[in-house]
UniProtKB/TrEMBL annotation:
This is GTP cyclohydrolase 1 type 2 homolog. Pfam families: DUF34_NIF3. One of its GO terms (cellular component) is cytoplasm. It comes from Halobacillus dabanensis. The keyword Metal-binding applies. One of its GO terms (molecular function) is metal ion binding. Gene3D superfamilies: 3.30.70.120, NIF3 (NGG1p interacting factor 3)-like (3.40.1390.30). The lineage of its organism: Bacteria, Bacillati, Bacillota, Bacilli, Bacillales. A divalent metal cation binds at H68, H69, D107, H333, E336. Keywords: Metal-binding.
């Protein structure tokens, strides 16, 4: 195991889960401040990058901050060190702390913000509330010596190949004989220069989402013993996974709206919520969207949802929802923090086998509201 990873290597692993192209065009995801070309030892996961968070990062010797909300969301015309934003940037640069943001790409990603919110409430059989795009699919066919077939199959499956519905590691293989003649300047794993070789090989076929293809090809090349890997890629007409923001799904059993309210408070760890609707009404189908989701109340209604869980609901939009017969639970914008443990776990699972990292979640409070 390597002693250290670079920030770029960490982000490469992270973007296998939440690639930047998942984000909306208006969003500013990715590197915010600093450099990715440096070793990292301590990573802090946070919802926001405010001055108290940066002070905590300095105190704890953090090298890389991975935030949900971009530090530089609005285009800057100046960096004024007399402003809170300017002081934050100054401290980050002075203490060599890199900041990376995963915003709407983490909202869209499977297992990201909205899926965590749904899982906590027991909302199942989910699909996107707002569809963005469908991931296109390709078929990968690779030829590998029998001795390395199982290792290669495992590597490409772990990198994202071979997922069909709720099944993983889906491949098909045939046995055959590969032939090749190493020419001058080669360093063959099997055989000698100028001599024809006949090798018992496996032909392994699998399906790969196009967004996972770079990671799958890298895993294939890293695992394959040959100097030159023989493989084919075929575009497919099969439709890939539907991606989008928000989620719509169902509870196992109908519950009173008041019961769901208490579940939201408990699972999202918030002391209060705002509610619109009949608390004695039973609800089963739930739409939800982390962050600010009031503009999607019509989509929530069209989905057949009984209740919509989202933050930043305004007076008139909540009235509109009520008139449509759509109950609303507003736990605030800050509940997106529930994704932080998932990000920490993902990094531990995918990076600590490569580098020795200390991954922490910020303990600083960035919720601006208090209810008195």
């Amino acid at each position: 195991m390597n002693e250290t990873m670079t920030a770029q290597e960490v982000i490469n692993q992270f973007e296998k889960w939440a690639p930047k192209h998942f984000a909306y065009d208006w969003d500013n995801v990715g590197l915010q401040v600093g450099t990715l070309h440096k070793p990292v030892h301590t990573i802090m996961v946070t919802l926001d990058v405010l001055e108290n968070v940066v002070d905590e990062a300095i105190e704890k010797g953090v090298d890389l901050i991975i935030a949900h909300h971009p530090l530089l969301f609005v285009k800057l015309s100046q960096i004024n060190l007399d402003t809170p934003k300017g002081r934050v940037v100054q401290k980050l640069i002075k203490h060599d702390i890199t900041v990376y943001a995963a915003h709407t790409n983490l909202d869209v990603a499977a297992g990201g913000v909205n899926d965590v919110m749904a899982d906590l409430l027991g909302v199942k059989q989910t699909k996107p509330l707002i569809e963005t795009e469908k991931d296109s699919l390709v078929k990968l066919t690779v030829f590998v010596p029998e001795s390395h077939a199982n290792e290669l199959r495992e590597a490409i499956s772990e990198a994202g190949a071979g997922h069909i519905g709720n099944y993983s590691h889906c491949t098909y293989q045939l046995s055959g004989q590969g032939t090749f003649k190493p020419e001058s300047g080669t360093d063959p794993y099997i055989g000698e220069q100028g001599k024809m070789e006949y090798v018992d090989e496996k032909r392994i076929e699998t399906i790969v989402p196009k967004t996972k293809l770079p990671a799958v090809l890298k895993a294939m090349e890293d695992t394959h013993p040959y100097e030159e890997v023989a493989y084919d890629l075929y575009p497919l007409l099969n439709e890939g996974e539907q991606m989008g923001v928000g989620r719509v799904g169902k509870l196992d059993e109908p519950v009173l709206l008041s019961t769901l309210v208490e579940r939201v408070k408990k699972e999202y760890q918030v002391p209060h919520v705002r509610v619109s609707g009949n608390l004695d009404k039973k609800v089963k189908k739930v739409a939800l969207l982390g962050g600010s989701g009031e503009k999607y109340i019509h989509a929530a209604k069209r989905s057949g949802a009984d209740v919509y869980v989202t933050g930043d609901m305004t007076f008139h939009m909540t009235q509109d929802a009520a008139e449509m017969g759509l109950s609303v639970i507003d736990p605030g914008h800050h509940v997106e923090k529930v994704v932080c443990p998932k990000v920490k776990q993902y990094l531990e699972d995918h990076c600590n086998g490569v580098g020795n990292l200390n991954i922490i979640i910020s303990e600083s409070n960035t919720e601006p509201f208090k209810v008195i």
